[in-house]
Specification:
CATH architecture of the largest domain: Beta Barrel
Number of helices: 4
Order of helices and strands: HEEEEHEEEEEEHEHEEEE
Number of strands: 15
Helix content: 10-25%
Distance between the termini: 69 Å
Number of domains: 2
Length: about 375
């Protein structure tokens, strides 16, 4: 554990830089960005020697992850592994690593059907140190950590996630580490010829989401967010009788009937959402748009305004264009169902806060539809 502390101290400056950079570059949003995770499992050696006992191995992983948006993030990982040799030898290698990896949320990219299942891929690199208490004198002249084998490591992994609630999720992490500058084998029995080694880890863990908001970028959508199309009923026509005004001849004028103008119907499509940086209309939301189309066909005099919005990620100009494209995509779909394009006006408001039908306020990748 003393050696592990040396590694942590060596990279604490790098951690500070990562945290400060993230804090400066990205402001507050309506979704949480930070999480911490702890995993436990086994490891297995891919390169020689083959006498490492996988069934008795141990892997512990601790990570903190910062998501810039629903797709991209950065993870700082700390690992501790034991490589016991097979029966017949009484020695165990210990291995500690520190790495920085980029994270990509495949689940958000492809909008997986289940809002409780996610899939992350991560890749990056870092440093590691390996030692064996029975052979501490073998690397006595090591320039960094005496008696240890100091290593450069490259990492890649796949992490399925299962959401428990808005604060916790469980995961299965499958990872691969490729080592450079590895002088000793994983059972410390010999010096490697090409200074390389590799192993895998398989572990189960728990992730905790940190922040004041009720959701994290891993799970941008509520588990239950029903699609609601609200309509204000048209006020019935009321006949108003005017009071006859007297004339010189004292003959009352005929009573005139005045018909009030019906109040405009209000249409809502607040829950027609879009994928990140996309303006393609998802099949799952076309039923709501079909409801709007039915109202337009039932009242040929009705004209509508389609307004597009984006989330808070990205520049102002790019988001204005994206929000216009989303509004135009909805218009294209409605026109394809037989509604005249002349009855539909579109505009894009980009990163503008909006209040949903359920009362939640924020910046969302969606459109609204109102009667003009």
């Amino acid at each position: 554990m003393h050696t592990l502390n040396h590694v942590v101290m060596k990279f604490k400056g790098l951690l500070i830089v990562v945290v400060l950079t993230s804090s400066i570059s990205f402001g507050q949003t309506s979704l949480n960005k930070l999480s911490v995770g702890l995993n436990y499992g086994i490891n297995g050696v891919i390169s020689a020697p083959v006498d490492v006992n996988t069934s008795n191995s141990h892997h512990i992983g601790l990570n903190t992850r910062y998501m810039f948006n629903t797709n991209l993030g950065l993870m700082l990982g700390l690992g501790y592994d034991l490589f016991p040799t097979a029966e017949g030898t009484a020695t165990t290698n210990q291995y500690a690593s520190l790495n920085i990896q980029g994270v990509y949320n495949i689940g958000s990219l492809f909008k997986l059907p289940s809002k409780r299942f996610g899939l992350l891929v991560h890749a990056g690199g870092g440093i590691a140190t390996m030692w064996n208490k029975d052979f501490g004198s073998d690397n006595a002249t090591d320039p960094y950590i005496k008696g240890n084998d100091d290593i450069i490591t490259l990492n890649v992994g796949l992490t399925p996630q299962f959401k428990i609630n808005d604060r916790f999720s469980v995961n299965i992490d499958l990872a691969y580490a490729f080592n450079l500058e590895q002088d000793r084998s994983f059972n410390w029995s010999y010096v490697t010829e090409n200074n390389r080694g590799s192993f895998y880890t398989a572990s189960v863990g728990l992730t905790y989401y940190i922040g004041a908001n009720d959701r994290h970028f891993d799970w941008p959508s509520k588990d239950v967010m029903p699609i609601v199309v609200e309509e204000v009923k048209v006020v019935e026509e009321v006949k108003v009788e005017t009071v006859p005004e007297p004339v010189v001849e004292t003959v009352p004028e005929p009573v005139q009937e005045v018909v009030t103008t019906p109040a405009p119907a209000v249409l809502s499509a607040n829950n027609v959402e879009f994928l990140f940086a996309s303006y393609a209309v998802s099949d799952s939301y076309k039923a709501e748009l079909d409801n709007v189309i039915s109202q337009l066909k039932a009242d040929p005099t009705m004209n509508i305004l389609v307004t597009g919005y984006t989330d808070e990620v990205g520049g102002i100009d790019a988001n204005i264009i994206l929000s216009r494209n989303r509004a135009n995509a909805v218009k294209t779909y409605i026109v394809s169902k037989g509604v005249s394009a002349a009855r539909i006006t579109t505009k894009g408001l980009g990163k503008t806060p909006i209040t949903l039908a359920n009362g939640q306020t924020g910046m969302f990748r969606m459109v609204t539809i109102t009667q003009k």
